[in-house]
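Question: does this match?
>
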Amino acid sequence: MKQKLLIATGNAGKIREIEHELEHGGGAGILDGFQILSLKDLPPNTPDCVEDRPTFIGNATKKARHFAAIANCLTLADDSGLCVDALHNEPGVYSARYANITGPREIADEANNAKLLKNLENIPDTHRQARFVCAAALSLPTLDLAVMVDEVAGLILRSPRGTNGFGYDPLFYIPQFQKTTAELSMQQKSQISHRGKALRRLINWLRENVASASCR
């Protein structure tokens, strides 16, 4: 009987990227022994996790532990966001709710991007540096196992470009590629992105410590 691994996010864009790393980011061999679950596999009306910690690490570990206890299985969760130098690292942990918009993810993303551009409208192009940061955490119901943090640096454009990403991707420009992360293919984005790098490190940890990650 395979051990269960719950991916604790309802964000469709994150799910695509996590699934890509699990399949192509070095996890294929070790994860053959796991049954992969999503939040949709949990009972209806499962309580959500309130992400009220001041750091990405705090929110990721809280979310992983919260859903591991509910599902009684190994759980992977991440917390990630955009930190803009000129805005004193805002929106940071509030990236997903920067504009205080609830509802469909696409509407919230559009509102968040609009607010970001408004707050940066008087910032010159030479001072629009930013970082995407990701903390990825693994937990069992009563034990935090590991958390990996990584980031990618870029610049914030004045208008969106590209349709491949989600969130702030259409505004986040990577000079190395002369493209936004919304213009990169999944394979290109995976190699340089904050989430891709953090997840590969977490998968490597799991490969070396799979026995200690057992819920059985």
Notes: Helices lie at 12-24, 28-31, 56-71, 105-119, 186-192, 194-208. The chain has a mean pLDDT of 92.
